[in-house]
């Protein structure tokens, strides 16, 4: 890896997919983001804080269009710049387009790490055809309501945004839904997907196995949470019993990232 201020970058390739890996360091915490290019299509744009690295990647790969998996600033941060300054058309889901037409102000810690996303307009699409590949979108909410995955069935590939992240979760956002995340993983596993391209974990060659492991973990977390809740334990007690303490993430995010959010999500969804 080569250092660029507080950003480290590396390039990777898997078949026809080219990847840019950025590691941003903020207050001693490392944050990873991956941007992909397939056959002239840039998948994800990275955050504003990584714009110089993304600019170099775009200059080398020369994509002709851009797409996103969801609106979060670490994925959409450079979308406005790419459309305005580079003249690239942007394709995204309808919900993502609605949010990015007038984006909300993100929390301070996210602005510190990634940077605020810009207003941007583009084309709503549920499929994209490049010269050699056909990508179709699959709704995969849970992490965010507008989240989608882009699937290349002929290759067994899926660009999964933040659906995977890791086989196990130790903390989450207040807005996430574990119940919906389970359904999204099941939907993706119903397709012939083997390799996944995660926006934070990178290229996962054994992606199906990784998704299956995450599904098993989330189902276990759901079942154990509900069992302990029915026994009278509160969400903080359940989080302490089932999940590792992540005090650094909790403090750094002023409580927006926390293990207890995963537990509260499960209990909340069970009452609906």
Automatic annotation (TrEMBL):
Span of domain Metallo-beta-lactamase: 32-200
Spans through the membrane: none
Record's CDD domains? metallo-hydrolase-like_MBL-fold
Name of protein: Metallo-beta-lactamase superfamily protein
The uppermost taxa in this organism's lineage are: Bacteria, Bacillati, Bacillota, Bacilli, Bacillales
């Amino acid at each position: 890896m080569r250092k660029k201020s507080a950003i480290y970058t590396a390039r990777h390739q898997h078949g026809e997919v080219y990847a840019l890996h950025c590691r941003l360091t903020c207050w001693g915490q490392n944050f990873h983001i991956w941007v992909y290019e397939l056959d002239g299509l840039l998948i994800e744009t990275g955050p504003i804080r990584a714009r110089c690295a993304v600019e170099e990647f775009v200059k080398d790969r020369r994509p002709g269009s851009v797409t996103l998996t969801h609106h979060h600033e670490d994925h959409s941060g450079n979308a406005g710049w790419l459309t305005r300054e580079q003249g690239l058309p942007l394709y995204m889901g309808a919900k993502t387009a609605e949010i990015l037409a007038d984006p909300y102000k993100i929390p301070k810690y996210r602005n510190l790490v990634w940077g605020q996303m810009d207003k941007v307009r583009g084309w709503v699409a549920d499929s994209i055809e490049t010269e050699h590949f056909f990508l179709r979108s699959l709704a995969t909410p849970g992490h965010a309501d507008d989240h989608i995955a882009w699937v290349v069935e002929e290759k067994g590939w899926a660009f999964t945004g933040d659906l995977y992240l890791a086989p196990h979760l130790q903390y989450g956002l207040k807005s996430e839904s574990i119940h919906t995340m389970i359904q999204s993983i099941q939907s993706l596993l119903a397709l012939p997907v083997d390799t996944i391209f995660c926006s934070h974990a990178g290229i996962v060659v054994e992606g199906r196995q990784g998704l299956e492991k995450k599904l098993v973990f989330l189902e276990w977390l759901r079942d154990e949470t509900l069992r302990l809740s029915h026994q009278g334990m509160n969400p903080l007690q359940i989080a302490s019993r089932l999940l590792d303490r992540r005090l650094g993430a909790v403090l750094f995010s002023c409580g927006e990232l926390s293990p207890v959010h995963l537990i509260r999500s499960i209990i909340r969804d069970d009452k609906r």
